[in-house]
Amino acid sequence: MATLDLDGARLDYHLDGPAAATTVLAFAHGWCSKSAHWSAQAAAFAPTCRIVRWDRRGMGRSIADRPADSPARHADDLAAILDAEGVERAVVAGHAGGGPTAVTFAARHADRTAGLILVDTRVTAAPPDGGPSPWVGYLEKSCARLESEGAPYFERLYRSFFGPRAPESVVADAVVNALATPVGVAVAEMRHMGLDTAGAAAQVRCPVLWVSAQPDDSAEVRERFAGTDLTIGHVVGSGHFVQVEVPDQLNPMIEAFLADKVSMASDAPSASTRAT
């Protein structure tokens, strides 16, 4: 475990795997979650890869004097952690509410992103008419209930993210961690999921692995990541916490993606030289 003090926050992060590994995987957890929710992936890939997991500011073991103002803040936090550890390029993975962080990192730090893995998340686009979207409306109602109803609503909501096969001990631990998140951070992070991230997705040029537990969302995903080398996978029998509930399905997808699609070469083209 290590920490990094940065812009009013103390970021808690974990390193696994050989320091000399050529492939680096950086994992962004979801809404009010924690880096430990990527433990099954760290265990699977640490024998051959360098693993970076961090608690995003205000969540898990990381603390902050104010919530992050946007996914870009989290993306820059990751860049700072990679700098501190001497990592030039990484494959960046994001689950759920960590998806905007991962997508924004891939757009904002394109020359440092060897690949992008998105697990049961969404890329939000502003409605063409400029009005509020149903998704944003749902998020705002949830924010209002978090503020007015507090822990009882928070717990019911968080439990609903897991499928019926998830062990109660895993669910209970996730709920305890989530409820420790300051309400201001929880509300701010929920609103981040409603921000327009389609623009950032359109800038991504590295290979992308999209894994979903939802009904088929392939058409929308292909539209969002047009022009990328996109791989789409779907898991079965899982709730929203795919990496925790069905690592036996997710990990082979990641392994194949790394083997077939990702190059960690230091001479990979920069953002300025990639074709658009």
Determine the CATH superfamily: Alpha/Beta hydrolase fold, catalytic domain
Total number of helices: 11
Helix content: 25-40%
Shape: globular
Give the name of the CATH architecture.
Answer: 3-Layer(aba) Sandwich
The largest β sheet comes out as: 9 strands, mixed
Counted up, domains total 1
Do you know the CATH topology?
Answer: Rossmann fold
Mean pLDDT: 94
Distance between the amino and carboxyl termini: 39 Å
- Would you count the extended β strands for me? 9
Radius of gyration over all CA atoms, rounded: 18 Å
Q: What structural class should be given to the helix and strand makeup? A: alpha/beta
The proportion of strand residues reads 15-25%
| SSE series | EEEHEEHEHEHHHHHEHEHH
CATH class assignment: Alpha Beta
User: Which stretches of 5+ consecutive residues score pLDDT under 50?
Assistant: 266-276
